[in-house]
Amino acid sequence: INILLAFLGFLLNRAEMEKESRDRLTIVEDRRLRLKLLLAGYLTGIAAGVVGVGGGMVLSIMMLSLGMEVGSAGALSLFAVLFSSSSTTIQSVIAGGIHLRHCTPLISMSFIGATLGIFVLKKLIERLARPSIILWILLVVLAIAFVLIPMQAVSGMYRNPNSILDFGTFC
Q1: What is the pLDDT of residues 31-83, one digit of tens each?
Q2: Backbone torsion region of residue 98, taken as left when φ is above 0, otherwise alpha when ψ lies between -120 and 50, otherwise beta
Q3: Neighbour tally for 73: CB within 10 Å
Q4: Which end of the chain is more exposed for a tag (fewer CB within 10 A), N or C?
């Protein structure tokens, strides 16, 4: 389904993308960029599946480094995360790792928080006329993760020193 939706989106927007490329005289560069984005999406999907989180952040940074606009990179990254996280979630439900009765309150509050956050961010960008706010938010989230993840790892080692490098069972 994901591949079909992506292909359908490409077909629906292909004429407009080609027209913009001809107008700017960047046909070859734009095709290379689309190929790089396809590869980046595949690799970050693998990273998100292996690690479980972070594919969207990696994809956003990759797209920004390729010269995409901040708003477009954020939106495309969120769209890609939708598919990778939904497939991972379905796998976890099938494997019995997620109990749906516990998820309902979390899903509800996450939806409300995400919707409220989108409206606040949209108003802030309109008021300040700076779409780069999205990039700064991403930077702050990465900085917080950069500090908190090692702190939690060290805290876990002190609480249970016998499991310092324990990855658990294979299954």
Answers
A1: 777 777 777 767 766 766 666 555 666 777 777 777 777 777 777 777 777 77
A2: beta
A3: 23
A4: C
Helix axes 27-51, 55-65, angle to 10 degrees: 160
Which whole-number Å values give the CA distances from 54 to 1, 81, 123, in the listed order? Answer: 22, 9, 26
Model pTM? 0.43
Q: What is the CA radius of gyration of the chain?
A: 20
Encoded tokens for 52: 């479980």
pLDDT at residue 141 greater than cutoff 70: yes
Which residues are within 8 A (CB) of 18 and not within 5 positions of it... i.e. 6 or more apart? 27
Buried b (16+ CB within 10 A) or exposed e, 117-156: eeeeeeeebeeeeeeeebbeebeeeeeeeeeeeeeeeeee
Contact between residue 49 and residue 84 where contact means Cβ atoms under 8 Å apart: yes
